[in-house]
Amino acid sequence: MQYWLIKSEPFKWSWDDHVEKGVEHWDGVRNYQASNNMKAMELGDLAFFYHSNEGKEIVGIVEVVKLYYPDHTDPKGRFGMVDFKAVKPVNKPVTLAQIKADPELTDISLIKQMRLSVAPIRESEWNHILKMAETTIP
């Protein structure tokens, strides 16, 4: 099991949009490092859904349900996408300010690589954020 953080601007694609859809592809990624992170995902991996720009907070959890495949929005065919299923909202959103202020999260990719839209999360960081969010995963 690997853990991830995926970021979306809520005016383009929000947590509520994803919940309404249930399962949806994660397209439009045009950064090679983010794309490589999606290539490394395995079925059943979990990711935090983070609202960027507006809100700047972790609001939900998604699960990888389809592995990396070609992105239909990439006319050059260089990038791919994965499908995520909405698992559950977090009970208490965790803000970027809270993450930056927490000494246990100083090395988290959300801070170290702020512009990366798909990033790995260490298991210890995942568990710590779950506690901050007052959320459990069965």
* DSSP summary, beta strand count: 6
Order of helices and strands: EHEHEEEHHEH
CATH homologous superfamily? ph1033 like domains
- Could you tell me the strand content as a percent range? 35-45%
Supply database-style keywords.
138 residues; alpha+beta; globular
Description:
This protein has 138 residues and is an alpha+beta fold. The chain has a 6-stranded mixed β-sheet with strand order 2-5-4-3-1-6. It is globular and about 40 Å long. The chain has 5 helices and 6 strands. The protein has one domain (3-132): ph1033 like domains (ph1033 like fold, Roll), CATH 3.10.590. Helices cover 25% and strands 36% of the residues.
Describe the structure concisely for a colleague.
The chain is an alpha+beta fold and 138 residues long. It is 25% helix and 36% strand.
Please write out the topology.
Elements: E1 3-8, H1 15-21, E2 23-25, H2 32-39, E3 46-51, E4 57-70, E5 80-95, H3 96-101, H4 109-112, E6 118-121, H5 123-132
Parallel strand pairs: 1-3
Antiparallel strand pairs: 1-6, 2-5, 3-4, 4-5
